[in-house]
Amino acid sequence: MNLRHLSEPTDSAVCTVQVMRDLAQRPCILFDYDGTLGNTTQSIVATARAVLSDFGMSEEEMGDLRRLIGPPFPQAYSEVYGLSEKDAATVTAHYRKLYDVCGPEAWPPFAGIPELLAQLQANGRHLAVASSKRQGLLERCVSDGKIADYFEAIEGKKNDTNKQTKADTIQAAIDKLGFTAEQTVMVGDRHYDVEAAKQVGLPCIGVYFGDTAPAGELEEAGAIAVVHSVAQLGRILCGI
């Protein structure tokens, strides 16, 4: 098979020329936020550590707190730590009380992301955010990062009680932009993004530069390509 290798001193991604061409020609691009557009790992982990410590959990019991990045809250606490629905809701309420008073320094866009979005928009691509982050907070993050003008739709989680899945959020973003799955590509940092995209019929480019997914997770989930830097992501999306 004819493979094209995208490489930098410490990064590499492999993608067939045919796949590269297809991804670069799709007019609609959806982005996850945490770990993909926004550099939020440190703030999420620090806040979760404080909350779980208050809840009586030891560092050993917490383990790798980055596992909380991806699934929606409060369900994430049940999925990762086995908390009951009631306890997960209690922990989430405490988490949000702390996290919601954070400022823009807690969720800045990764270096190079604003420039990439500007280039994609200038090239005529249609961009949207599809995240499991709460709708209001997601809009705040995008606005604080001064990247809101690049997006034609910003789709987040509406509330904690409905059955909205990540696949539902992705589909809502596609519908708002008026495209089909065949015209769209997803970009995300966890297996949740890859799997949800597949449910909707989209290819997903997996990103490791957010330092959220363990090595191999995105490939195993079925990402069509993986990248380790914003520059690599730009090469794939722009077909360079």
H/E topology pattern: EEHEHHHHHEHEHEHEHEH
Which structural class do the helices and strands define?
Answer: alpha/beta
Q: Per CATH, which architecture of the largest domain? A: 3-Layer(aba) Sandwich
DSSP helix fraction = 40-55%
- Name the overall outline: globular
The CATH class name of the largest domain reads Alpha Beta
From the alpha-carbon coordinates, what is the Rg to the nearest angstrom?
Answer: 17 Å
Specify the CATH homologous superfamily of the largest domain. HAD superfamily/HAD-like
Q: What is the tally of helical segments?
A: 11
How many runs of DSSP E, i.e. beta strands? 8
Tell me what the structure shows.
With 240 residues, this protein is an alpha/beta fold. It has 2 domains: 3-39 and 108-238, Rossmann fold; 41-104, DNA polymerase, domain 1. Helices cover 44% and strands 18% of the residues. The chain is built from 11 helices and 8 strands. It has helices spanning 17-25, 41-54, 59-62, 75-81, 85-99, 113-122, 135-144, 166-177, 191-200, 217-221, 230-238, and strands at residues 3-8, 11-16, 28-31, 126-134, 153-157, 184-188, 204-207, 225-227. A 6-stranded parallel β-sheet has the order 5-4-3-6-7-8, sandwiched between helices. Strands 1-2 form a two-stranded antiparallel ribbon. α7 (135-144) links the parallel β4 (126-134) and β5. Residues 1-13 have low confidence and may be disordered.
